[in-house]
């Protein structure tokens, strides 16, 4: 028997970053929006834990026990006194190390799939606890939709979304390491008073109304200067999408994927074509939001 779970990518429509905490993490006001680009995780009973991956970027995904999906299976098994003997197969469509939480999506997917395969009936609250142990972004991958993440991003409050938003994502060549981008944020803000991160009310209102123009005006990402500092070529990508008529452009989370909010689906197609023609990205993907969280198929 096999179980397959589909899990969405995310974009951060607001990422307010506070000063580094004593534990090295940063307090955030992280407004997550799940977008319709998905990985699928299929689990099948096996003699031992094994991982395979298919998709255009599969060669960049670790297939050992450092894979976040494998760590998720191990943690769930340990909670229930089971052996994590499953074959985990990841069908990867989310850009790797792209600031779209692909690894987190696979972890949430593996957790839900193993819980169904093993009939362990783990409560939602317990699943969310395990997610938070695996990574700051993993709880959101489980719940999807839109949510405000506080603490290091793992404490979630669901948010209302009143319409569909149309995005283009420009995928860059190569990834950016999340810890390296936070470290660059620390370097750039050294000696500067970093304000407490707070969610923007105009942004939350724009989400609730489904108002793309208002959301475009309110988008912000405090990690963007750090990502641009590490990857200056992203400025050219942001400019190309804006010139093609995107309502707004920003780096997705820690990057290097860049996100373009557009008026509607036809406008998104036009922006994607212009981005591809500009030669400033490896590929351009269309996706609508919000998208549902991890779902058993
Ligand atoms: C930046 C964001 C925005 O949603 O995601 P990505 O764009 O990378 O996907 C997240 O904060 C990434 O979350 P995630 O990738 O789960 O990070 P974790 O595994 O928890 O932490 C990896 C490292 O990132 C840094 N980190 C992460 C979260 C946080 N609030 N403060 C941090 O300083 C720390 O250096 C930590 O060791
Ligand atoms: N299932 C997974 N899919 C992708 N990357 C993974 C996975 N498990 C572990 N990783 C590691 O996590 C790093 C970050 O990947 P990812 O989650 O895709 O990006 P981001 O943190 O930018 O959203 C990768 O470079 C890879 O080494």
From TrEMBL:
Annotated EC: 2.7.1.148
HAMAP family: IspE (MF_00061)
Similarity field: Belongs to the GHMP kinase family. IspE subfamily.
Pathway where it operates: Isoprenoid biosynthesis; isopentenyl diphosphate biosynthesis via DXP pathway; isopentenyl diphosphate from 1-deoxy-D-xylulose 5-phosphate: step 3/6
Superkingdom of this protein's organism: Bacteria
Name used for this protein in its record: 4-diphosphocytidyl-2-C-methyl-D-erythritol kinase
Molecular function terms from GO: 4-(cytidine 5'-diphospho)-2-C-methyl-D-erythritol kinase activity
Gene that specifies this protein: ispE
Positions of transmembrane segments: none
Entry keyword set: ATP-binding, Isoprene biosynthesis, Kinase, Nucleotide-binding, Transferase
SUPFAM superfamilies: GHMP Kinase, C-terminal domain (SSF55060), Ribosomal protein S5 domain 2-like (SSF54211)
Active-site residues per Swiss-Prot or TrEMBL entry: 10, 137
Every GHMP kinase C-terminal domain range: 204-276
Catalytic activity: 4-CDP-2-C-methyl-D-erythritol + ATP = 4-CDP-2-C-methyl-D-erythritol 2-phosphate + ADP + H(+)
Function: Catalyzes the phosphorylation of the position 2 hydroxy group of 4-diphosphocytidyl-2C-methyl-D-erythritol.
Residue numbers binding ATP: 95-105
Protein's UniProt keywords contain Transferase: yes
Pfam families: GHMP_kinases_C, GHMP_kinases_N
Domain (GHMP kinase N-terminal) ranges: 67-145
């Amino acid at each position: 028997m096999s179980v397959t779970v589909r899990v969405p990518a995310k974009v951060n429509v607001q990422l307010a970053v506070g000063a580094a905490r004593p534990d090295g993490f940063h307090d955030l006001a992280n407004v997550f929006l799940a977008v319709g680009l998905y990985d699928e995780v299929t689990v099948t009973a096996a003699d031992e834990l094994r991982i395979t991956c298919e998709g255009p970027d599969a060669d960049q995904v670790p297939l050992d026990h450092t894979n976040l999906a494998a760590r998720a299976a191990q943690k769930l098994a340990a909670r229930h006194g089971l052996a994590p003997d499953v074959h985990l197969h990841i069908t990867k469509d989310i850009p790797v190390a792209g600031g779209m939480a692909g690894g987190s999506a696979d972890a949430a997917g593996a957790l839900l799939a193993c819980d169904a395969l093993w009939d362990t009936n783990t409560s939602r609250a317990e699943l969310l606890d395990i997610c938070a142990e695996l990574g700051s972004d993993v709880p959101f991958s489980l719940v999807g939709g839109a949510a405000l993440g506080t603490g290091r991003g793992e404490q979630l409050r669901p948010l209302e979304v009143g319409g569909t938003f149309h995005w283009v994502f420009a995928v860059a060549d190569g990834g950016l390491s999340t810890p390296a981008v936070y470290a660059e944020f620390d370097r750039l803000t050294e000696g500067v008073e970093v304000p407490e991160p707070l969610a923007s009310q105009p942004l939350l209102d724009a989400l609730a109304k489904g108002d793309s123009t208002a959301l475009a005006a309110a988008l912000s990402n405090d990690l963007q200067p750090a990502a641009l500092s590490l990857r200056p070529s992203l400025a050219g990508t942001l400019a190309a999408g804006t010139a093609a008529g995107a309502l707004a452009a920003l780096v997705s989370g820690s990057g290097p994927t860049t996100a373009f909010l557009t008026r509607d689906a036809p406008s998104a197609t036009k922006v994607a074509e212009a981005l591809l023609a500009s030669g400033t990205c490896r590929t351009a993907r269309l996706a609508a939001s919000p998208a549902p969280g991890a779902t058993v198929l």
